[in-house]
Write a structure and sequence with these properties.
The complex is a heterodimer of chains A (154) and B (266).
Chain A (H helix, E strand, L loop, with lengths): L9 E5 L2 E10 L3 H9 L4 H4 L3 E5 L7 E6 L7 E9 L3 E6 L2 E10 L2 E11 L3 H4 L7 H20 L3
Antiparallel strand pairs in A: 1-2, 2-8, 3-4, 4-5, 5-6, 6-7, 7-8
Chain B lengths: L2 H23 L2 H17 L10 H17 L9 H9 L3 H13 L7 H13 L4 H12 L4 H8 L3 H22 L11 H9 L5 H5 L3 H4 L6 H14 L8 H18 L5
Helix pairs in contact in B: 1-2, 1-3, 2-3, 3-8, 4-14, 5-14, 6-10, 6-13, 6-14, 7-9, 8-9, 9-13
The chains are: A alpha+beta (154), B mainly alpha (266).
Chain lengths: 154, 266
């Protein structure tokens, strides 16, 4: 799925899956973005889509995430991939959230995507809210916070 | 560089180092032990110093690592440490008797509001995660550059910047909510209350106008007020100031109470 690099989420659907993706250029080092993405307890401070994350965002660990998408639910998610400053994947058997960072001439290209699906997906597809607005906000919040830290005095 | 030069340079920043470790550990004993151990380690490992950083940065790295090893197993203090300690001290006659004795007999037994502001920061900054507390102290109080802090902490510059940003923001929020000197709705008045106890003939308001952070609170934003708070710490040597003995007695007391509160008493 191609994603425009404008911080606006794009969603594609098929019978058995749905994938939402957002991408934005952030004028900050990948390491700063990585620090923001991997400090669980700090998420709610800068990210308006996250109510809380408990646990450690490290390879093989499990986190518990509460999102504004569904405030009543706690998602138990396993950290599936953890490549510092490059790629982070967490998820459950239903799907995976992928964060990727790529150095560009002017900072870092941040891309986030989530694919959910499976044989039973058609049965509950209508119950899953759209991720688009949440993805837009996530990308905008991350860009704002990372660029603020990047600009801070040395 | 020779070991004699190491000794000379070490002596030139030894007080700063001791003050840094005190503000990290909140313990005079730990500060003295760690400074001594740092010197011995620096001396023993001097042949590994390649001059890739300044000697001061290298020595602060050794000291920070020793302090981190000591503190890593200990719990962080709660943000409301000063409330907890105040509640406990109100019933502690012995504490006040000792403090008043120091006040009356020690040449470093004065009570000054600005010294209590520095003391208060030392206590509350122990609520930050350890890496954040160290980064904040190194940058805001001891004037290290982010690059030097990254070396001391063995972290990337990006991570040092991140720790600095988060810790600074957190402390600004805590003081904005708590400190009545900068916010009329602030819930903590301990520095002026203690001033009333230790300097009964003095009017707190007259003292406060001498402190830029309190005097200009209404005209400055939170960031500027935090910078002024840091300026107070930069200018004070917690071992040499006119209120040092009184404040260190108070710090020792708070530390004991926190150890008890957190179940860490020996």
């Amino acid at each position: 799925m191609s994603t425009a690099s404008n911080g606006k989420a794009v969603t594609s659907k098929s019978t058995f899956s749905r994938e939402t993706s957002v991408s934005v250029n952030i004028e900050a080092d990948a390491a700063i973005i990585w620090a923001l993405l991997t400090n669980a307890a700090d998420f709610p401070r800068w990210n308006s889509t996250v109510i809380s994350i408990s646990g450690k965002i490290q390879n093989g660990e499990t986190i518990e995430l509460k999102s504004t998408l569904d405030e009543k639910r706690t998602f138990k998610l396993k950290i599936k991939e953890f490549v510092p400053n490059q790629r982070l994947v967490w998820g459950d058997p239903m799907g995976s959230r992928i964060y990727s960072l790529e150095k560009t001439g002017k900072g870092t290209q941040f891309t986030m995507s989530e694919k959910i699906g499976g044989p039973l997906f058609p049965l509950f597809a209508s119950m899953i809210p759209s991720f688009d607005e949440s993805f837009d906000r996530f990308a905008a919040d991350l860009k704002k916070e990372a660029e603020t830290i990047q600009r801070s005095k040395n | 560089m020779t070991t004699d030069q190491l000794t000379t340079e070490f002596e030139s920043f030894q007080r700063e180092l001791k003050s840094f470790i005190l503000r990290m550990t909140a313990s005079v004993q730990d500060a003295e032990d760690i400074v001594q151990e740092t010197y011995l380690k620096a001396h023993a490992k001097f042949d590994t110093f390649r001059g890739e950083s300044t000697l001061k940065t290298w020595v602060f790295t050794i000291a920070s690592n020793l302090a981190r090893d000591l503190l890593r197993a200990k719990k962080r203090w709660p943000e409301n440490v000063t409330d907890i300690c105040k509640d406990a001290v109100l019933n502690d006659r012995e504490f006040f008797q000792e403090a008043l004795h120091i006040r009356q007999t020690s040449p470093q037994g004065n009570f000054e509001i600005k010294e209590h502001i520095a003391f208060c920061f030392t206590c509350i900054s122990r609520s930050l995660p350890l890496e954040q507390q160290i980064t904040l102290l190194l940058k805001e109080v001891y004037g290290f550059k982010v690059q030097e802090i990254a070396t001391i902490m063995d972290q990337s510059e990006a991570m040092a910047k991140y720790y600095l940003h988060v810790s600074r923001g957190r402390m600004i929020d805590i003081f904005d909510q708590r400190c009545a000197l900068i916010n009329k709705q602030g819930i903590c008045h301990q520095c002026t209350e203690l001033n009333g106890i230790f300097n009964p003939k003095q009017k707190a308001q007259e003292e406060l106008v001498k402190i830029e952070m309190a005097r200009d609170a209404a005209d400055k934003n939170k960031e500027e007020l935090f910078d002024l708070r840091m300026k107070i710490l930069q200018e004070l040597d917690p071992f040499e100031s006119g209120a040092a003995i009184l404040q260190l007695h108070h710090l020792k007391h708070n530390r004991k109470l926190m150890e008890k509160h957190l179940g860490e008493s020996e």
